[in-house]
Amino acid sequence: MTPKAAVELVPARTKDQLRFITCGSVDDGKSTLIGRLLHDSKIIYEDQLTALAHDSARHGTNGNDVDFALLVDGLEAEREQGITIDVAHRFFTTPRRSFMVLDTPGHEQYTRNMATGASNAQLAIILVDARKGVLVQTKRHSFICSLLGIRNIVLAVNKIDLIKYKKEIFDRIVEDYIAFSASLRFTSIVPIPISARYGDNVASRSGNFEWYDGPCVLDYLESIDIQSNAVIQPFRFPVQWVNRPNLDFRGYAGSVVTGSISAGDEVVVATSGQTTRIKRIVTHDGDLVRAEAGDAITISLEDEIDIGRGALLARPTERPQVSGQFAAHLIWMDEAPLVAGRNYILRIGTQTVAASVTAIKHRIDVNTREHLVAKTLGLNEIGFCHISTALPMAFDPYEINRETGSFIVIDRYTNRTIGAGMIAYPLRRPTNIAWHPLSVSRNERAALKNQKACIIWFTGLSGSGKSTIANIVDQKLFTMAYHTMLLDGDNVRHGLSADLGFSEPDRAENIRRVGEVAKLMVDSGLIVICSFVSPYIAQRDMVRNLVAKEEFLEIFVDTSIDECARRDPKGLYSKARSGEIKNVTGIDAPYEIPLRPEIHLRTTGQTPEQLAEAVVEVLIARAIVDNY
Asked: What is the pTM of this model?
């Protein structure tokens, strides 16, 4: 099988590759432009053209003409609706250059897909419908391109045939776009009038433009000089896995993401600061003297030092930042909103760590680029946040190194990617703030009280009986001469959290404050009994992670919503169902059932006294308190 027209195809690996993205508002012609580029580059086979003609008759939107968008829109839903949903990757080559093109969706609800494509691109083709001009989604996509480090823009004013090739309309659109993008950090903006449907100025110059003497799209893509600076950047090698085929060899496998390294060069493990030298650079085809960006290698070191998956190797003279706190732009990609204080999984390269957003400094209006006050981020929203990780991470600011400055946010329970971020800078603690060493430890304080300090955390719906059971447990331990403190959800709302409401962000902040107070009490040697609805797993886990594993007991007071509503001691459920109050857990706010509680109390058929006795028995079995 041969392409429709004979053309000299140079193997892609012998030429540099340009990665570019097409974006813009819906129906601006992104998929059609790519389909036309593929067709006019003479790389479409006869059977593909036959299938395209058949699909155009079935799904096409161009009447009897071939619909080139169908070359890219592969999903059945895309063809039926005439839109792009997923990010489509296509590869093609010409005698001058090879290309990877990413066609991204124009609908606002698929902005996250567009951002994914832009993160891998060196250039963006922003399409604008000549009839409509610069739209909101045009601005949104342009802003995201700028945020993700794309500096070269082709402004393709499409469907120029539908405005009869009028120069004044083209000039006005270009003027509007340049005025809008003046504050964006683009190095070059090249406006080109095109008709993707008919091929005007796509792969060759069109005779329909007496007033235009610039390049066609393909000529520009072939000639633009986008030098990859990956090789000249500082050396960065994220360890993918430890290669130990036998007792005589230990190597660290991965890919060089930037820079270069040679055998004998000194390297440092970024987070630990341990230094050593490269002994060998091993590949499937034999040892290398030198490796550079893009090479997949295994590194053998002169010294036996502690290195595992996620470690980042660098030159001692070109170290990355290492911090457990940093500021970053964050694109949120999940239906459930981002909430400060929740625990997520964060992945930078091969490094994976528990993390939380400690503050949302502002949300960015992508249309005006105005900074807005926000407590949460919704789907497709962009914010500037402070992030804290459980362990120090090695990274570079995104503007310096896109490979080591970007990260994804993962839901720790579903393992779905729910956010993507670009690190701006590390957050340094003030130099005058440090941990002050204490002469008396928490264990010594607890031993003086003849007990083990811990947090006993009761969780359940309002009306489940958790406060009643917690109070009886407190009384029993007091009678046994143990030192306890009971923190109840209603009581802390009168003081510690008097300024908070019941929205999800306020609930998260309430539990954060209570957790910190409970930790201080554990440090003083107390048994801290906490009774809070605490509806979210992440909030409860946040408190769990403040203390040692054996110092936290989660008690799920399991009572059905119907039984809680029947009791309704505070009148919450009746008011919620009448619409008088909002954000009542179990009615119009969710309750996430504990997955593996230390104690599961099923209240049906049991009295509060019996349930409290069961809790005390567990405390005795765990040697937190002695038998009585």
From this structure: 0.66
